[in-house]
Every structure is written in C-alpha cells, then in structure tokens.
Amino acid sequence: MSSGLTDLLKTGFSMFMKVSRPHPSDHSLLILFVVGGVTISEAKMVKDLVSSLKPGTQVIVLSTRLLKPLNIPELLFATDRLHPDIGI
C-alpha cells in the first residue's frame, strides 16, 4: 500500500514540477505507412531525408502497394476507379 501511495504522490507532484516526458521524436525508429502505394524512389527519398535531418534514425516504409512508375498515369487517368470491382 505504501508503494502505491508513493507513486500517487510522485504523480501528483509531477504536475507542478517541470518533468520531461518522452516525446515521439525522441525515438530512433520511424514507421511510415502509405495508403494507396509508394514507389521505390519515394521510399528512398523518405529514407534519405530522415537520415539527413536526424542521423541514426531507422526508417521503415510500409505501403498497401508497391508501385512502378508506369502505374502512376494509369492510376491517375483510369475511368473504372469510380466503380471498383466488389467481387459480385
């Protein structure tokens, strides 16, 4: 019971004192998830940008699809994207 009271007092006093809390940018791992697809060059651009701005940070780029440069005009100008195939 005393350790619970001690923890409670520490938590209560930390509201009045300047206590540094962890921030998401303090971590050395960045996970980026792109919905819709990403090209290899875009993934490399993200990796290079993060390594130049914050050295030592590991980058993991995830995506729903790996795109080729030839897929991009098809995805932009396809007319059947308004009526997706729902498998019926």
From TrEMBL:
InterPro entries: Sec1-like_dom2, Sec1-like_sf
Gene3D superfamilies xref list: 3.40.50.1910
Name of this protein: Sec1 family domain containing 2
Originating organism: Vombatus ursinus (Common wombat)
